[in-house]
Structure formats: C-alpha cells, structure tokens
Amino acid sequence: MDWIISDELGLTVGHLVGWGAASAMIVGGVAPYIPQYRQIKKTQDADGFSLYVCLTLLVANTLRILFWFGKRYELPLLIQSIVMNATMFAMIHLCVTIRKKNQIIRARERIFTGAIFMLYILLCCVNGSAQPDETANWLGQQSGFVGGEKPHRFYVIKPHASFIGFIFFWFTPYMDKKYFWAWTDFQSYVDCMLVFSVLGAAITYLLIEFSPFVELIGFLAVFTEAMLGAPQIAKNLQNKSTEGMSVCMVIMWTFGDLFKTAYFVIREAPTQFWVCGSLQVLLDIVILLQVWMYRHNTAAARRIRRGD
C-alpha cells in the first residue's frame, strides 16, 4: 500500500512518483539537445550536427500527435511530442542562421515551394480552371518569384497544356533531392512540416475509423523516432569523425531512451512504443562506438600528426 502523504488531497508516494516520471518524460526528451545547442552557438559551427536528426524527430512526433486522435495514450507523451517539435524548430533556426553567417560567398537561395503548389491547387479550385495563368502570376508576386533570379527550390512547377487530370497534369512537381532539407531560410522548414501536417491530418480524418491505419500511424511514429540516430551515424561515417557532435547529447540520448523504454513497459504503452524504444537504445550505442573509433580523428590530433 502507498504511504499516504495528505489525507485531504489524497496524495500518495505512488502519485508523486508517477507525476515525477511524467515530468521527466516531457523534459527529458528535450534535455539532450541543450548541450548541442550551446556547443553550436559557442563554436558558431553547425557542420557536425545533422539536420536530418531534426527532420526525423519532427516527422515522428507529428505522426505521434496524429496517432493520439486515433488511439488515446498518456497525455505526457502527447505534450512531449509538442515540446519536442518546438525544440527541433529552435535547433533548425540556429543552424540555418549560423550557416548563413559563415558563408564567405553568398550562395544562391534554396527554398521550399511545396506550400505554394498546394495553395495554387486550392486557388484554382476556387477560381476555376479557366484562369490558371492568373493564379500562378498572383502566387509568383506574393512569393517574390516574379522577375529577377529565381532561387533553387525543392519543387519546380511546370505547366502542361492539357486540363485532363487537373492536379496531375496542370502542374507536375518533381523533386530535386539534393536541395531537400538543405534550404537556406528557416521559413522553408516550417512550410515543409506544415504541408506534411495538413496532409497527414486530412488522411487521418478520413481513415480514423480504420483500425489498421491507426495502428500503422503509431508504428511509423515510433519507428521513425527509433531511427533518430541513423542520420547522425551516416554523417559520422561520411566525415570519418564525430567532431562537432556533442558527446554529452548522445550520452543523454542513451540514458533518456533507456528510461523511456522502461517507462513504456511499466505503463503498458502500446507495443510499438517499447519495441522501437529498444531499437533506439541500440542505435545510441552504435554512435557511442563511433565516438571511440574516431577518437583520434580530431582537428587537434591532425595538427599534432602534421607537427603544427
């Protein structure tokens, strides 16, 4: 039996432990990014941190929020997803700002225009298909793309002469993968996630009564989060170094994921949560092994080997 702390409030040790664990779940997910944020701000160098880590968490937590509407889980996990998304946008804003500041020669702007494409479709549906050129020109004026040099963009929109199959034939967007999630302005990242969220919400609204779809969203949410370490592992392999990555962040990842997985098991969260939590711990260990493998491949070590 729990020790009674207050008869009037009905508080027990079990209640306090539960609230403490819930608070740790909300704040603990954000804590590992504090040292990485401070390191990037101090060194004014964001090259060692992969922005795909932010993409992974934004997608995972957006899916987890959508999953909550189809299958209710504990409120602290929902709040954690909202707080994590805000944190990832803060990390992206810092990295984009610093990378712009560090440019020696001003590079051509790279932006995401998928949101403008969606707006075009909506406006054409409202205005009628007889004025596609007028709608396109209006969008161009609003976005500043008319006249002058146009920036690189993830979506490039090309008109076709036929009206057959309006959405697919009036405008055919195609992807230039090398510019995806490598935009030069913060607004593009916000727009991209806004498009993803709106499309995801619309599909979820239509299929929310279909249980296999809801379970699939839950699995994709936690599996995507479980692959959080994969972009950082790939960047470390590419650089043959972990320089610029906060080791403190990875250590906090590991302890946080261990705690989170145990929390899922104890609180009997859906199976997807604890299975993918275990995978996340495994990837954290792989990154720590990379830290040990590349421990001699740092700027200081290279200067010593050159005799500088």
Keywords:
single chain; 308 residues; mainly alpha; two-stranded antiparallel sheet; two-stranded parallel sheet; 6 strands; 66% helix; globular; SLC66/Scramblase_ANY1; Solute carrier family 66 member 2; transmembrane helix
Produce the secondary structure layout.
Blueprint: E1 4-6, E2 11-12, H1 13-28, H2 33-43, H3 51-70, H4 75-101, E3 110-111, H5 114-127, H6 132-143, E4 152-153, E5 155-159, H7 166-169, E6 171-175, H8 186-207, H9 211-226, H10 229-239, H11 247-266, H12 271-293, H13 299-306
Parallel strand pairs: 3-4
Antiparallel strand pairs: 1-2, 5-6
Subcellular location: Membrane
Keywords: Membrane, Repeat, Transmembrane, Transmembrane helix
Membrane topology: Multi-pass membrane protein
Question: Can you offer a commentary on this structure?
Answer:
The protein is mainly α and 308 residues long. The protein is 66% helix and 6% strand. The protein is built from 13 helices and 6 strands. A two-stranded antiparallel sheet has the order 1-2. The chain has a two-stranded parallel ribbon with strand order 3-4. β1 and β2 form a beta hairpin. α5 runs antiparallel to α6 and α11 runs antiparallel to α12. The longest helix is centred in the N-terminal third of the chain and has 27 residues. It is globular. About 10% of the residues have low confidence. It is found in: Membrane. It comes from Danaus chrysippus (African queen). Keywords: Membrane, Repeat, Transmembrane, Transmembrane helix.
